[in-house]
Hints:
There is one protein chain. The chain is α+β, with helices and mostly antiparallel strands. The protein has 2 domains: about 10-165, no CATH class; about 170-359, SMI1/KNR4-like (3-Layer(aba) Sandwich). The protein has helices spanning about 50-70, 105-115, 150-155, 155-160, 170-180, 195-205, 220-230, 235-240, 255-270, 275, 340-345; strands at about 10-15, 30, 70-80, 90-95, 95-105, 125-135, 135-140, 295-300, 305-310, 320-325, 335, 345-350, 355-359. The strands form 3 sheets. Strands 1, 2, 3, 4, 5, 6 and 7 form a 7-stranded mixed β-sheet that branches. A hairpin with an 8-residue loop joins strand 3 and strand 4 (about 90-95). Helix 6 (about 195-205) packs parallel to helix 11 and helix 7 packs parallel to helix 9. InterPro entries: Knr4/Smi1-like_dom, Knr4/Smi1-like_sf, KNR4/SMI1_regulator. This is SMI1/KNR4 family protein.
Amino acid sequence: MKNSGITTSYFLEYNNNLKKTQWNDITFFPIESYALSGKELLDSDTKPGTSEILEFRDNLIQVFSMQVEQKVERLFLIAPKEISGIYYGFLFLQNKQILPIKIVGSPLFYKWMEIVLRDDYEDRDMQSLLQFASNEYSIISIGGSIKMNNRIFNETGKYLFDNAPKKYNEAKLAKEKANYMTKYYQPESHVDTTAIKTAFDQMMKQFNPAFAPPADNEEVYEEFEKTAGFAFPKALQELLKLHDGIEDIPFLTAENILEEWINWKTIYDGWTLGELKKSPDRKKKVLGLYVTPYWVPFFDLEDGNFMAMDFAPDKNGTPGQIIAFGADYEKGEWIADNLAAFLDTFKIDYDDDNEDYDY
Length: 359
């Protein structure tokens, strides 16, 4: 650490030895809380809402990051039974070290704690553990006479090890997911180009929409393969030989497919395998996952939901089957065996001036 005020003796290294560390083995570094924003609260009866509390969370992390001269990835803060008591905590730092801290309290810090913990302190004799990160805000009960959730005191090192930021284990978590998905990935097999064109022509004849002529998508296909590690689906290439966007029918263009695939791959990368796993599909056609990198979205269902081609089916599924997934789905849902079958069943139900899509 380049900051001169903190000696190496304070830091806990994130490794297997950390699991053996007990609370009494730890030396807590005194850290200041005087630079917090929100001084107007000291003379105000206004109760900040959720957005203001989240701003305080981010401000607290920023204040501590500045003092240790390194980004704080996650903060554990142990609140005492009394608002104005001693606060202990742990800073999970960007370099995968953990700094135990003891807060040098200030009137503003205690005011914020009163606001944050107001619902947590009613009618009980118990401490609380606040867990803060840029996308995290939680408070759980610890200690107290009934010893609930007391691991942070009884198994301190192991608790810190088990609850470290995901970034501390990126390589391990990525390998775990890759090993799991490798068992299911199946490359695209034979593509019936005639069936796709026939189904598409029938659909276009039925609805007669305006559409953009096909575009040269070779650069997009190359970029997809470079990024995804497998080829842009041939079935979708065949479909995109027939159009580059259809009026009022939300098929994605090649560029949109790549963009949405990247968006969902980002979500996949940020979740652990345990977080991705959902209840299994009873028919064993679609993996019980929220998303995988082998789902290639090609049709926009709106509000963050999509139809996709699936190249990591469960044991009773087929590579290239069509599934629905997205923000409103707990997990992927089977729709059709292949792209041609999906196009065959596609229809529009007309309701006066409104068009609703069925598939």
